[in-house]
Amino acid sequence: MGSNETKMTEFILLGISDYPKAQKVMFALFFVSYLISLLGNSFMVGLIITSPVLHTPMYFFLSNLSFLDIFYTTSSVPQLLVNCFFLRPTISYIRCVIQMSIRLFLGIAECFLLAVMAYDCFAAVCNPLHYTLIMSRKFCIHLAVAFWTGAFVMSLIPLLIQPTQFCNYVINHFACELQALLKLSCSDIFLKEILLMVNSFVVLIAPFLFILLTYGRIAMSVLRIRSITGRRKAFSTCGSHLITVSIFYGSAISTYVLPKGKSSSNHDKFVSLFYGAVIPMFNPLIYSFRNKDVKGAFLRLLGKKISG
Ligand SMILES: *[C@@H]1O[C@H](CO)[C@@H](O)[C@H](O)[C@H]1NC(C)=O
Fold this sequence. Notes:
Keywords: Cell membrane, G-protein coupled receptor, Membrane, Olfaction, Receptor, Sensory transduction, Transducer, Transmembrane, Transmembrane helix. There is one protein chain. The chain is mainly alpha-helical. 74% of the residues lie in helices and 3% in strands. The protein has a single domain (10-307), classed as Rhopdopsin 7-helix transmembrane proteins (Up-down Bundle), CATH 1.20.1070.10. It is built from eleven helices and three strands; from the N terminus they run βαααβαααβααααα. α8 runs antiparallel to α9. The longest helix is centred in the last third of the chain and has 35 residues, at 190-224. The radius of gyration is 21 Å and the shape is globular. The structure holds 2-acetamido-2-deoxy-beta-D-glucopyranose. 2-acetamido-2-deoxy-beta-D-glucopyranose binds next to α2 and α6. 2-acetamido-2-deoxy-beta-D-glucopyranose binds at residues 57, 60-61, 63-64, 67, 140-141, 144.
């Protein structure tokens, strides 16, 4: 038996840093950011569900985003926190595959959801008179079913190409991600990497191009608006979404699409830390600070609590 052909049952997750001092700081940092994103996102979901003023397509999709972000951070950050206490934390093969599938599914769902939200903005700005007709309750539910199912199907494809034999058991990442796992494979991964690129084209670049086109159309119709208040209104509808999209796709594309050098694993690790732990924390903040409807709903909720 060749020693390099053994079927591995456990991996070592290198995590973010080996230095004990740095680990303490990391622990504090990620603990706080995890709490903020859990609280912020649960708060958004609760507020949107309980406030009739927020029962519009935009907020329904936003609550889908918050819902998604709760699970996305939970798929890696608690484990990252626990692993701060171990010198060489391990993860079993099965848990690794489960974690990888959940992260793939949620990541892809987020890509699709942001495209759906862009379409919603487009309908609101470019077609305000027919907005309620276009984004009917039924159509929104169809869209939601479509992107959740689409994400599920597209997350199965990379799973089929995941390696089963490994020559190395040390994952240079804080969570199991396909990219990091492929690097440990014994066999030639050229074909698999090509398949993965095709897949990430469908789930990442295609929605991104759609969003770019949509924002192009939005920008054109905003430029046609003469009044300053009209422009401001359009910007307040889509501004928050544009910020979220830029941060999310910026970091995702820099991981999955841009060519990389030797230090690529470290780069991947930090970028996925960014959208796994930091972005989910900012989404609720971006949407609530900039938004009159959310503030209004919140104050109304407070008022109800105080008077009731
Ligand atoms: C997701 O969006 C759909 C469609 O608008 C909505 O019916 C559903 O309640 C949302 N789900 C969550 C958890 O926010």
